[in-house]
Amino acid sequence: MKLSDLAAFAAVARCGGITRAAAELNTVQSNLTTRIKTLEAEIGSPLFERHSRGVVLTEAGRRLLPYADRFAALAKEAVAVARDDGIPKGALALGSMETTAAVRLPPLLARYHAAYPSVQITLRTDPTATLVAAVLDGELDAAFVAGPVDHPDIAVETAFEEELVLVTAERWKNLDALRAGTPESGPTALVFRTGCSYRQRLEQVLAALGWTCPTRLEFGTLDGIIGCVGADMGVTLLPRAVVERSGWTANVRAHALDKTLRQVKTLLIRRRTSYESSALLALRDCMSGDRAANAA
Questions:
Q1: What integer is the mean pLDDT of 16-30?
Q2: pLDDT, tens only, 182-236
Q3: Do domains 88-161+265-295 and 162-263 have the same CATH topology?
Q4: Was domain 162-263 assigned CATH 3.20.20.140?
Q5: CA dihedral in degrees (207, 208, 210, 213; nearest 10)?
Q6: Smaller CB count within 10 Å for the chain: N or C?
Q7: Which comes out higher in pLDDT, residue 244 or 106?
């Protein structure tokens, strides 16, 4: 079984068709068709069902796909290991929650880039659950997510410690005023997409305040949530450092929460069994230096 055949199979599965996969891989359709047929002959079972709009995986294809992805990740890692001479350089694929990317990462990544300009950083923002899956799948070298994360294949370390606050429009002076001025059904919860751990914590906070089934509106951006909170569309839960970001405090108010609800750690996670490159080690060193300086 050739890695190139598995890569072709994974591309067709990801793109949902041979035409789109050929365009993505910059090759001809006949090449992919041949590779897929070779795999199907070796396995002894069809991997795709063809239809007018493209292809879908068969049961055999669904079983094979995770292994194809793992082979691809392992091959990529092998190249990185062979090239790594101890000097931080090359690609470093990071993930982050949008809140962390907005406030915590700019100074850290600026210092890192100044010290290691040969590292090409890519940063992807997503909810915690999506980032954990991407680290496990080898799509990301590491990611900044909300704790706790308990998975046997994930190594974690604390990157930042945050105080979460309930964020409302500026006119709500305190939580008692919010309770008195909000319908029995509770305020609308303005949240990120499913998989965001702050979203889960917000539901706990609202339940503690007596609202167990709030209406939810989902947003894809931090600016969108903050803007709508300022317009009094609803409430959200965010780190205090995010709320205090310049330009936002005039329209919103941050309300302190009980200790059991307000404390959360932002973790740097990586796959436990994957090779830790010099570039990633250098990032962890920068992060450790920041923690030491703050402690002093």
A1: 90
A2: 888 889 999 988 888 888 889 889 988 888 877 899 998 888 999 999 999 999 9
A3: yes
A4: no
A5: 0
A6: C
A7: 106
| Exposure class string for 270-285: b at 16+ Cβ within 10 A, else e | bbeebeebbbbebbee
Fold of 3-82: Arc Repressor Mutant, subunit A (1.10.10)
202 within 8 A of 212, measured Cβ to Cβ = no
Where are the strands (E) in 7-153, listed by range? 48-51, 54-57, 90-96, 119-125, 142-146
Q: Which two tokens stand for residue 278?
A: 């010099």
Q: Could you tell me the residue ranges of all domains in the chain?
A: 3-82, 88-161+265-295, 162-263
CA distances 29 to 24, 26, 36, 61, 285, Å, are 11, 10, 11, 19, 46
Asked: is 88-161+265-295 a CATH 3.40.190.10 domain? The reply is yes
Q: Mapped to the 3 state alphabet, what secondary structure does 227-244 carry?
A: HHHHCCCCEEEEEHHHHC
pLDDT tens, residue by residue, 152-163: 999 999 999 999
Q: What confidence score (pLDDT) does residue 271 get?
A: 93
pLDDT top residue among 79 and 155: 155
- Which of helix, strand or coil describes residue 101? helix
Radius of gyration of the chain (CA): 23
Q: How confident is the model at residue 295 (pLDDT cuts 50, 70, 90)?
A: low
Q: What are the DSSP calls for 157-173, one per residue?
A: EEEEEEEEEEEEETT--
The bridge status of strand 142-146 relative to strand 90-96 is: parallel
pLDDT in tens, 220-233: 888 899 999 999 99
CA distance 115 to 289: 13
